[in-house]
Amino acid sequence: MYAIRLGDDGAEMRPLEVWHAEEFLAHLDRGRAFINRFVPFGSRATDLDSAREALQRYADLRAADTASLHGLWLDGKLVGGVLTLNFDAAAGTCEVGCWLEPAGTGRGLVTRAMRVLIDWAVEERGIHRVEWVAASGNTASIAVARRLGMTRDGVRREAHLHHGVRHDLEVWSLLAPEWRARATQPEGRWAGR
Length: 193
What we know:
This protein is α+β, with helices and mostly antiparallel strands. It has one domain (4-184): Gcn5-related N-acetyltransferase (GNAT) (Aminopeptidase, 3-Layer(aba) Sandwich). 34% of the residues lie in helices and 33% in strands. It contains 5 helices and 8 strands, in the order ββααβββαβαββα. Helix 1 packs across helix 2 (48-63). Residues 16-172 form the N-acetyltransferase domain.
């Protein structure tokens, strides 16, 4: 299976599959409070069986060509991941997302991995519109959308109930022609972290 190097710092992006359940659970346990501040990602994976179920759900979505899940490893340790959701190649649309435990933050891992994922979606799968949805308070996630060259389309006010609090959701997007245009700029689409 593939492992894509994301730089010279030991960072890699690989498939996150059912057989990673034990490693996935340990990762979630290390970062659960941090990861779940704005999204419930992995919140139901609390033991080995439920971790397997969560990964199997994404494997089934991958088989249906409606989502994909990729882990981010730093020096051989799973610290987060990126994913596609609502992937619709026929319509040319998808949503992308991410999560990290604290040990993976501040290194540009998500931005670097997302560049690979978006490039694949646009160039290999013909996706025209890539969306990023983040709680307004999740400034780190919004910063990634900006670094990727996305445009803020708007805010869905109090659209997300999480931990008893209603969060505004910001919708950001990137169109295939914009992504390709970045490649022709002097810094290219790979500039920055």
